[in-house]
Amino acid sequence: MKKEMYALVKETAAPGLTLKKIPVPKMGVGDVLIKIRKTAICGTDMHIFNWDGWSSRTIRPPMTPGHEFVGEIAAMDKYARGFDIGDIVSGEGHIVCKTCRNCMAGRRHLCKNTVGVGVNCDGAFAEYLCLPYENAVKVSKDIPEDVAACFDPLGNAVHTALKFDVAGEDVLITGAGPIGIMAAIIVRHCGCKHIVITDVNDARLELAKKAAPDCYTLNATRDTLNKAIKDLDMKEGFDVGLEMSGNQSAFADMVDYMNSGGKIALLGLHSERTVINWDHVVFNGLTIQGIYGREMFETWYKMMSMLQTGLDIAPVITHRLDARDYEQGFAAMNSGKSGKVILDWSKIGEEA
Ligand SMILES: [Zn+2]
Ligand SMILES: [Zn+2]
User: Fold this and answer.
1) Tally of domains in the chain
2) pLDDT 10s digits, 299-315
3) Residues 6+ apart with CB under 8 A from 226
4) Catalytic residue among 39, 44, 174, 198
């Protein structure tokens, strides 16, 4: 086993990441050591890369970010169970305490003491990642590695999209980022009626159209939801809303255009100043449900099952790069024109 590995390190409290050699992480009790094959870049990683207000409050350099990955089990602590060396795995990036009320009741996604891989501890932008064996998830061989590298955000999309029954329903998705587009593909797979997806960025809406061809795309800077409702001959507003944008007016519009009794799953992060029409919520009996992470591990099970029965999110992946070209990948993400960006770690470190 190598002693050193390449990793993308946030060295100081400043923008950027540095590709450099650091020690291979040491396994603790019950850990598995995963040799990373591919990683995907998340919005969270962009915050860390760009060093914004959230990351300067949250991240403690030096550290290695990254939490969207696929790799293979390279070593196991003697207390790790359920895996063999060489198994292909992805993993849940939320490490829970196992002792709080929610953990004890099996609601691990609601743990108060969650530690985020690649946020609160070293992450996956490296040749090797250490993870508790309970967080590793075996990947079925018929699922492409690029797709498996996106299980974390796909799990967010699955968790949000399946929160409410969408079969036969009209669904509004606000935000055509990768998770919003994945959600459109999922609700179609689950038999919804109309899908309207909104954004303010034409490149993203074009990608949505390509990846989920029968969804109705709408640029909120040019048109209102009235147009969608008229074009689709909808009578009573949306039954289910999936808020993925974190944009205040998108959320406010969603509330205004819901049918009575409509249900909103809220994944987008909003500022405390976001204003919605609370009269609509109360008088129309709306449900607003916050969504965080993935249900452990029901979301993972459903995600894998759907991928094995025709769900295809590969069109959301727009860039595949060698990890050494990471700067290109982060630039693509910063441009606002990319879908998921995959970094391949298989060639890096070969000379060592
Ligand atoms: Zn992520
Ligand atoms: Zn807990």
Assistant:
1) 2
2) 999 999 999 999 999 99
3) none
4) 44
